[in-house]
Amino acid sequence: MGYPDQRFDVNLSILFTELPLLERPAAAAAAGFTAVELWWPWIETPTPPQAELDALKKALDDAGTQLVGLNFYAGQLPGPDRGALSVPGTESDHFRANIEVAADFAASVGCTALNALYGNRVEGADAQVQDALALENLVLAARAADRVGAILLVETLNKPESPLYPLVSAPAAIEVVDKVNAATGLGNAKFLLDLYHLSMNGEDLSQVIKAYAAKTGHVQIADNPGRGAPGTGTLPLERLLDELKDAGYAGWVGLEYKPGDRPSADSFDWLPASARAAG
Hints:
This protein is an alpha/beta fold. The protein has eight helices and eight strands.
């Protein structure tokens, strides 16, 4: 039990950001990791040139790193946006344009989890209209994910940092997951359980794990307060990950934390080097 008993991956959109994107997979590998995840790297466009997609694939392959999670286009992230799929107009169009691009890229690198951030509430837009649009787009995304043998992830964020994002509790995200699965009949929509975001919302983390481990497709961690590495805050992350394992979760645990004032490579001292390479 404990950290060495988990399968960790490094989120290259929040760690190793002191390096250019194409150098990050090798940096993660040099730190001992064999699995990585990414937010959509091209925040300005849902449809980057094929040459840029090919260059990222080559960087992942050359480093010997497996991409295990990828976000669909989500607008300016990091930045003011929290996804695009429920935002009427141009952003929804961008999300749709990205669906097959992201799915095809995931297929090309063997990535089997695609995360679709819901998007913020928009001033002047009807929430029910936004939710109907979201379901429509999530169904399209779930079908594209299924085509390439992947799951679709729906994530809870936290209200203090994302006040306009409507999915700020585990039950809210689970409700969307269930609606997508009911609409597609595919069963490939899953919950992205982020222990940091849930703790920021004041949820009972052990209870969430007990209730929703079976519907969880991916886990992410950071300590709280501060969103730093495990051990920098007060969350009992090692115990919570053991509870997830006991509840039947055997998937990836994404390290989605801020390294603080030190280089990213120095932020992994909480995890023995022997436990970093995922089998």
